[in-house]
Design goal:
38% of the residues lie in helices and 29% in strands. It has 5 helices and 9 strands, in the order βαβββαβββββααα. Strands 2, 4, 5, 6, 7, 8 and 9 form a 7-stranded mixed beta sheet that branches. It has a two-stranded antiparallel sheet with strand order 1-3. The radius of gyration is 17 Å and the shape is globular.
Length: 209
């Protein structure tokens, strides 16, 4: 696979454990201090042992934070900035400060001497309303808004239909190809997160079978 390879569960596990440890501390603080309640979920490739590593860009884990209560009626921007502040305070020193990406909070662990990224977290903020999923995004004007994810609710059902060696191999190759295309700057994948690429790969795999 050249500059790309799939990563084992054992290598991914410590990063999952670190996130859960850090976010549980954040959960407790922002509920007490700011009236915000969140649940969190590991999603996409890391949840399903489909993590792809690039030799310079490392690999990532995708998390969704589901907003449950907002007692102080903080704005969308206040919510995101508060979470970024808390992650900056709680993450180990070898991680960079949070990046305010268009649709996520990105936290990178870099190997400076080798000018490469070892690992990153992509964390999106979600809201559920009338059985639809919404993601917090920063639009072209710099405003923070909720955008719907129309294809998200069907993912679990679609994924459950992947079975048999041929379908799994097709899914692994399809997702792998999309990750390469994104890293190579293909415009249609520019703002897609790994879990969104996996959603697309599942749908395309099902259509081929």
């Amino acid at each position: 696979m050249g500059n790309y390879e799939y990563v084992s569960k054992d290598e991914v596990r410590p990063y999952i454990e670190l996130f859960e440890e850090v976010f549980r501390k954040i959960q407790k603080e922002i509920k007490k201090e700011n009236g915000l309640s969140f649940s969190f979920a590991l999603v996409g490739s890391a949840k399903r042992n489909l993590v792809v590593r690039h030799h310079n860009k490392g690999f990532d884990c995708d998390y969704q934070l589901y907003l449950q209560k907002n007692k102080q009626e903080l704005s969308e921007e206040e919510i995101k900035k508060l979470l970024m502040k808390k992650f900056d305070e709680k993450m180990p020193s070898e991680y960079d400060y949070c990046e305010d990406s268009t649709s996520s909070i990105t936290i990178k662990k870099k190997i400076t001497k080798q000018s490469r990224i070892e690992f990153s977290y992509d964390i999106v903020i979600m809201n559920l309303y009338e059985d639809a999923s919404y993601i917090l995004r920063k639009n072209g004007s710099g405003q923070y808004v909720w955008n719907s994810l129309p294809d998200f609710t069907s993912f679990s059902e679609d994924y459950s239909q992947i079975e048999g060696a041929d379908m799994w191999e097709e899914l692994r190759q399809c997702y792998y190809d999309k990750k390469i295309d994104k890293d190579n700057g293909l415009q249609k994948y520019k703002n897609k997160k790994s879990f969104q690429l996996l959603h697309q790969a599942v749908k395309e795999t099902l259509s081929r079978f």
